[in-house]
Amino acid sequence: MTIGIGADDLLRFESLGDNCEFGFVLRRLSCEAGSLFRWVSMKPDQLLAKLRANFEGMYRFENLSPLRTGMVLDSAYGIGWHSDMKSDVTGGRLAFRDDEATRRALHRRETRKIQYLQAKFTARAAMGGVIFVVKSNPGIAPATVDGLYEALAALAGHENFALLEVQESDDPARIGRVDWQRPGLMRGYVTRFAPYHQADDIDAAAWFSIVQGALRLFPCHDWTQRHAALRIGTPDALVQLRFPFGPDQDMNKPITGDLRAGTARLLNGNSWCRPYEGLFRLHGPDPDKPGTTLRWTGVHAPGPFHLGATLRCPLRDSVPLRVAVSIAAEDGATLAEERFEVHPGRATDLVLDAPATKDQLTVELIVNAARPLAEGERAVLDLSPPALHPEQVPAIALPAKAA
Predict the structure, then answer these.
(1) 278-294 pLDDT per residue, tens
(2) Taking the C-alpha atoms of 119, 382, 108 and 305 in order, what is their torsion angle to the nearest 10 degrees?
(3) Checking DSSP bridges between strand 13-15 and strand 64-68, what pairing results, if any?
(4) 257 pLDDT exceeds 80?
(5) Helix, strand, or coil (residue 256)
(6) How confident is the model at residue 345 (pLDDT cuts 50, 70, 90)?
(7) What residues contact residue 403 under an 8 Å CB cut-off, 6+ apart?
(8) Where are any strands of DSSP class E within 210-360?
(9) Fewer CB near the terminus (10 Å): N or C of the chain?
(10) Which pLDDT score is estimated for 392?
């Protein structure tokens, strides 16, 4: 990145929606990490209602109607979500393209991803050090800003976060500046917001300056350690997949851990493939060679689930990587698979759905460099410890002060 913002620092930001504008700001800075509200359409008071209701009733099938050809409207909160439940204009009005059975299948898949991102949002709030970003083209009432701060503090259980409100201004001295309004609340200024019909038409220079200023005003010196320790979901419900034991492991001693996670193996790896600061670090060989493989066999799934993890290429001089992820049944039948390309400085969320099965599963992740490696080049991937998340993420009760 040319403006001197590190990839890890960008992971400190969490969009609170309005529209996709801040999502496009992060994209221009090469940050693709998924988050709950990054690509939604909602007003700040709708967000506040959702937080105060602890996400109750979010994205229920019966509440969804066509909003645009590729979006649905959740009538419970008036929030628009991008969706594979597509619509077409029929008789002068939008109507769903697919029948109900097809839409319900799509909805189940999308619900699991939203539940994962909800759990991630809550876990990041509790982790501390996060900068929540809120904006609205018409402006935000001060009482709504105050309510958002109180609801986030209740959700996090502490006040070790910052809420950054961004406003428009015609004062050249303010553009790109960020200042504390009071403890926990910052305000930054752009010349203009992107129009709602073209959310990627951002005031890039002002936004980038705001991102840099917010990081200076609200530093988090142990962010790397906090982020590496992040665990998404309820520990007793999810199945956490571990890194293979090293060659120095004393196999005569009992191995503690979740037996549902099966047996982990590293294939075609080298000495650089290892746990690193709470993550799994892998090196990808040339694309024509057998890929570095993490394979978990004998895994027991918690009913219908999705496999969740975050993929990052942490080194700026790394060659991009191609990652193939699959889940297979005992008979070798593939239940789910997906391929990713991961670039330096970017983070990509892996959310891979799988159906309920009584079989023992094999989960496999294969990494290769995206192109042949020249002498001295590396292709490096950091993987957050992957986990099998149950289809339903238990609700997390908010303290009374957020009600």
Answers:
(1) 789 999 999 999 999 99
(2) -80
(3) unpaired
(4) no
(5) coil
(6) confident
(7) 52
(8) 239-240, 263-267, 274-276, 279-283, 292-299, 305-312, 321-328, 334-342, 347-354
(9) C
(10) 53
